[in-house]
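Checked the freezer inventory, then went back to the computational side. Two predictions to log before the end of the day. The first one is the construct we discussed on Monday; recording sequence and tokens without edits.
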Amino acid sequence: MITRETKQPRDYEVMDSVLDRGDAVELARHLSCSPQLIRGWCRAPETESEFASGKFGPLSRLRTLIAMVREDDGCSDRAYPIGRYIANLLGGIFVPMPQSKKSKDSEVIKNISSVLKETGDAVEVTRKVWFDETPGRISNKERAACVAEIDEAMVSLVHLRQWIETNSKKR
């Protein structure tokens, strides 16, 4: 069963913002389906429980697949390759967000600061190895450690952004 999205934008709104007016015909030709089907992916539901086209679009199908994995496993980890694949197609990266613990604001900021300091240290170690100790080479262990620190830093920066957004709305 396809679960309804609760946050904006919804999948049909995303599809509508991505597809230009003439794209439905061309995309339908590429996908060997009707332009009406493509246009249906961009329409709002007529009722709270049904979509106007009666067909679910590709984003709804992905959401259903991810929801199925989450229900089966209790988490979305097994679906992460989907995020990595799509991010790669778009020239971006996918870094999963761990469950955040409820903490005092000062603890949140202190943790973020600590992670970013550790990341800076890892980058400095990488710089020394790459340029001074073994020019142009880095071991798999050093690479893995640096990549892990970078991923953790990206997550921390997103947490900081979320914290700022949440707390600026309170005022």
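The second is the one RB wanted added to the comparison set:
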Amino acid sequence: MNRALLFFCAFLAFSLFLVPSIAEAKKNQSGQPDIKVKLPKELQDKEDAFEKARKKLNREQKKLIEEMEVNFVSTVDPDLQILKLASNLEACGTDFVNDPKIIEKFNNFRAKSNERQVIIWGTFDQKYYPQVDFMDHKMLREHLVIKFKIAMNVGAQMIKIQAGQFDKEQQCENAKATLGLEDGAQADE
């Protein structure tokens, strides 16, 4: 679990560097969102170095790296669930969102999601890193964190787009259901 905590700290540090990246969501000609992510130069340089190292790998090694990318990016789900809940809660209005019991329930949801994510990361590390003896682990970890952050940026943009398309009342009901509030009842009932 120590590695997972260390990884989480590394992720937070990298996320500070990636915040300036631009994730734009515009509708393309087919009406679907067209999301583009531009990395800061420092991170793009790291990605370029990683791609150069990837080209030297054999087919099995490349396949393992691709599997790692897909599985690591999927660990974004707990973070996206937190963002989605926050977005849905906004639809309930300021009075509801500022209710101390709602804040407590949201914080509990976030804490459980974060705990689940740390466990997922630890499991990921235990499964994959012992298999990678052909590449620098630091370079690979940085690459995976960049992929993760891109997925977070894209996911956040999609949640924002969806929030503008859905019925606010339904979003609020979804938030209440996620928090375990029955029939739209306030947290103190």
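For RB: DSSP finds eight helices and two strands in the chain. The CA atoms of residues 66 and 72 lie 10 Å apart. Let me know if you want it refolded.
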